[in-house]
Amino acid sequence: MGDATEKEVSFAPKTGRIIHLRALSEANGNPWTSMAEIRVLGNLSLPVPTTVGLVPTSATAGGSAFTLTVTGTNFISASVVKWNGSNRTTTYVSATQLTASITAADIATAGRPV
After folding, report:
1. Domain positions in the chain
2. CB 72 within 8 A of CB 90
3. Are 40 and 17 in contact (CB under 8 A)?
4. Pair type for strands 81-83 and 14-15
């Protein structure tokens, strides 16, 4: 806390179609939050996708664009990664991996004050 270094988070595997990520911290002595939504879409008759990991696990506000790798199970070729509710260019690698292009604009600011 109180520095500009990247932080890392771990979480237990979860089953679901949407993952909401929220980071709470402070910038210049003011509270702020940064939020992202990752939605894995597919045919509802198929098994529910499970997300077990994200690489990278963090990014610095104002940083460069990057490729987000999502690992899990039951992904299909129509799966889409969403960031703050918007589709991101998603590549289906396998039933256990997706990659998505996250733009510099997606992480341009840390978020709005809480």
Report:
1. 14-107
2. no
3. yes
4. unpaired
